[in-house]
């Protein structure tokens, strides 16, 4: 069985934070401001270190994506369509001791298509076309 000490040691090392900044209910993503690729890397390291099956992990309940999402102004990204659920040392400890991600998510729906990302792609395409036109006819 793992203890808080094991989880705090892991968090302190991975997030470069003082153990004094941690409590069982610390919302680690909000408190330490990591999301996107950093959050995915963190979850993978956690899963490897504690042999936890994180296949049930739904990122959008816990943190936002990395980078600017201009399309998110018009179309809500997944993390803004659900209520935030904190990832805490308590949840990590429970998951480490059961060997699987311990959160049961509420019923929810996420659109089949990411319209925010499609809008971002459209903006990028328009920008590239304008640059080409300026370069060719400029």
DSSP helical segment count = 5
Q: In terms of structural class, how would the helical and strand content be classed?
A: mainly alpha
How far do the termini sit from each other? 68 Å
Helical content class = 40-55%
Structure explained in plain terms:
The chain has 138 residues and is an all-alpha fold. The chain has one domain. Helix 1 packs across helix 4. The model has no long low-confidence stretch (mean pLDDT 91). The longest helix is centred in the last third of the chain and has 23 residues, at 115-137. The protein is built from 5 helices and no strands. It has helices spanning 4-15, 28-32, 37-50, 89-98, 115-137. It starts with a helix and ends with a helix.
Give the secondary structure arrangement, pairings included:
Layout (H helix, E strand, L loop, with lengths): L3 H12 L12 H5 L4 H14 L38 H10 L16 H23 L1
Helix pairs in contact: 1-4
Kindly summarize this structure in a few lines.
The chain is an all-alpha fold. The protein has helices spanning 4-15, 28-32, 37-50, 89-98, 115-137.
